[in-house]
Amino acid sequence: MDISLFLFVGFSCFLLINGNKVEDCDYLTDKTSLQSFHVLLQAEQPYRTAYHFQSPQNWLNDPNGPMYYKGVYHLFYQYNPNSAWFGDGMVWAHSASYDLINWFGLDHALVPSEPFDAISCWSGSATILPGDKPVILYTGIDANYNQVQNLANPKNESDPLLVEWVKYSRNPLMTPPDGVKGDNFRDPTTAWQGPDGTWKVVIGSYSNSQGMAILYQSQDFVHWTMHRDPLYSSSKTEMWECPDFFPVSINSTNGVDTSVENPSVRHVMKASFNSHDYYIVGTYVTEQERFLPDADFTGTSSDLRFDYGKFYASKSFFDGKKNRRILCAWVNESDSMEDDLKKGWSGLQSIPRQIWLDLNGKQLVQWPVEELNSLRDNEVYVYDKQLESGSVFEVSGITASQADIEIMFELPKLEEAEFIDTSLVDPQLICDKQDASVTGKFGPFGLLALATKDLTEQTAIFFRVFRDHKDYKVLMCSDQKRSSLRNELDKTTYGAFVDIDPQREMVSLRTLIDHSIIESFGGKGRSVITTRVYPKLAINDEAHLFAFNNGSLSVRVSRLNAWSMNKAQITAGGEPGTISEDFSRKK
Ligand code: DQQ
User: Fold this and answer.
1) What does the pLDDT look like over 451-480, one tens digit per residue?
2) Where in the numbering of this chain does the Glycosyl hydrolase family 32 N-terminal domain appear (predicted)?
3) Ligand 1 neighbour 568 (Cβ under 6 A)
4) What is the pTM of this model?
5) Cα–Cα distance, 221 to 171 (Å, whole number)
């Protein structure tokens, strides 16, 4: 028998044996015991995060129906109440927040109960109808394992916490159309409304060797008719999971509501397949119900991704409180399934990111929501430090296992950069071949995160700068090869070009480190790489952070600011004791 972990949830605590709750431990009531219990928990569970959303136990995946409603942010998410693995019986767990960082758990919003979702309640989205009426469209897995689309409404719209949801009695509203297999029809988007009042929604699918967004229209949100053509399809893609379709302003970082359609916006179509979230930017021709992208997906490494590491099934929403568009995603584990059973949990949510269209109109830019800065503590900084070839310096004075770092590099003598024809190369492959140990000219330089003092364990997030004909190209890599002395982990190296001109702009990096997750934003958010790492030794207080330059040319750290991050107050939904009334009603 494997006594694998203790869990502390709200004001109750219990012991898990082989992932099953077997004993309540009410004896841990005084503060000292609770504090030692926390220390025990962190020592036993060094890979649990401090400020990322995760569940105390079991499996979680896609964010569902994120929205801002009557002063409260809502995060629903796919959750398996029965196991640390994915399985039948998936529910919509529910947490809510006033700032997108601290969350309190609520009861599950949707659980399998009816013929139209007898097996599972899968992913979907929320739409706020005129008159401030939120609704959910979600995929039910029916008793025959067919994927169908269902509607649910809040029981009490005047409750900002939207605790109870009622499934529409005439579900399902949409069933797999002719030519679409019953298991290739899922994940409705947030709906948008055309100028004539017609509601539209797309569903992810795959048919005739094309991944696609099937378009449905409705006058009343209940009766839906399939449009003749998909809103978009591409032969270069697989089954589209969790599509997302939304407008972005062409000249502002502000977000716009999903129904906005005018000359000051362009549209983004995102699809999740092949373990990544890919997107294209284009024009939505409302009258013809066509999306005309500037370029189709190519099926190559040049396709744009929200994140070039681990980041999947994302969903965005318009935040009317701060006029911005927010993006959330599932970040899965890269240890083994056996490890997940031992840990008793699997999956995290990314830090919510604000997204907007880059001024060049070609791609999106992402940045952690500003509310995250409220967790910053103990700032340390370094200005104007020369990083000679082969040098490493420790960023001390912060909690390196739980930190936020911003660093900017100046590159003198740029013209000495190595030549590369970037049209011929796959950035991820260069990062893999020329990992952090391979000396170049400009680069590798960057950060060594979750590292042991002697650097035997380290995750290197670094840049290389190349000359490409008349331009310069900045490559960003995340090298997990030495991230852990444990062997059985997925240590894939990730890489992407960052669309900045280093002649005009310093090469910058922001990295969020949280025990087993590292989210890195290169070029002020133009390329992002998220990874999961599980060091054996560089855990908790044994973790260190360094800046390094392993290139033959020196670079200058123009400035480095680093903060220890405080723990966020997070309880997940649906678990015993997770409804924190004090906290949830405090505003
Ligand atoms: N996860 C859900 C599906 C979706 C997939 C099931 C994407 O609805 O297609 O948990 O991760």
Assistant:
1) 999 999 999 999 999 999 889 999 999 999
2) 52-368
3) no
4) 0.92
5) 12
